[in-house]
Design goal:
Layout: E1 9-13, H1 19-28, E2 32-36, E3 47-50, H2 55-64, H3 68-76, E4 81-84, H4 86-91, E5 92-96, E6 109-114, E7 124-130, E8 143-149, E9 153-157, E10 162-168, E11 174-181, E12 184-187, H5 198-211
Parallel strand pairs: 1-2, 1-3, 3-4, 4-12, 5-6
Antiparallel strand pairs: 6-9, 7-8, 10-11, 11-12
The chain binds glutamine.
Length: 216
């Protein structure tokens, strides 16, 4: 397996949710990890992960701690960012199923997200995703195991958004569950909860590409 994360400093937004599991995998791939709670820390990292958890809570805490604008600036500047599950909701330009009073979003990812698409039917499930179009994922298998926990799905995408994985719904509709838009990666599921490190490797590849800090 490729391993070239050693020069990279990856921040994980550590306000609420599943940030510790991301950290373990990134360290395994050789990256150094910073738990981000203050805006100043954004100046010292090369890529940022917004973890799963509860997007309303993460958004409210980020607002209270003055992080919304600095995080929006990060996305707008085209710096590498990966949102998993709640993180994907926060990065969406548009969401369905949000609370009536709304919730703070960062935006930047030109998609419509249904926040609790699977939550209505089942709280969590694990399935295999077919991902042949993801370069970092095709070295050992074109499938990856994906854990969905009260997961969102993407119901519409803009033209600059590339779909990386989808599921078929009971009614036959395709549900998009992983996308990339330039330096933004978003997954509806939780790669940090499986042994498969390839999504993290893909994100490190994106950070390498964007920062030119390591040879690919
Ligand atoms: N549906 C949740 C939300 O809106 C996300 C769930 C998760 O991150 N596991 O935030």
């Amino acid at each position: 397996m490729k391993k070239h994360g050693s020069m990279l400093r990856i921040g994980i937004l550590a306000l609420q949710g599943a940030f510790i599991d991301h950290s373990k995998i990134l360290k395994q791939l050789g990256a150094s990890v910073v738990e981000v709670r203050k805006s100043e820390q954004l100046d010292h990292i090369d890529g940022l992960i917004i973890p799963g958890g509860e997007s309303t809570s993460i958004g409210l805490i980020a607002k209270r701690w003055g992080l919304i604008e600095p995080l929006r600036d990060w996305v707008q500047a085209g710096k590498p960012i990966w949102g998993t599950c709640a993180g994907m909701v926060l990065l969406a330009e548009r969401i369905e199923g949000q609370k009536a009073e709304g919730q703070p979003l960062l935006g930047g990812l030109d998609v419509t997200v249904n926040r609790n698409y699977f939550g209505r039917q089942a709280d969590s499930f694990e399935t295999l995703l077919h991902t042949p179009q993801v370069p970092a994922l095709d070295d050992s298998s074109e499938f990856c195991s994906a854990i969905f926990i009260r997961a969102p799905v993407i119901t519409a995408t803009g033209t600059a958004v590339e779909s990386l994985a989808s599921l078929s719904a009971a009614d036959g509709d395709m549900l998009i569950v992983a996308v990339r838009q330039k330096s933004i990666l978003a997954t509806a599921f939780h790669p940090e909860l499986t042994d498969d490190t390839r999504w993290h490797q893909l994100f490190l590849d994106m950070v390498c590409e964007s920062t030119k800090l390591c040879p690919i």
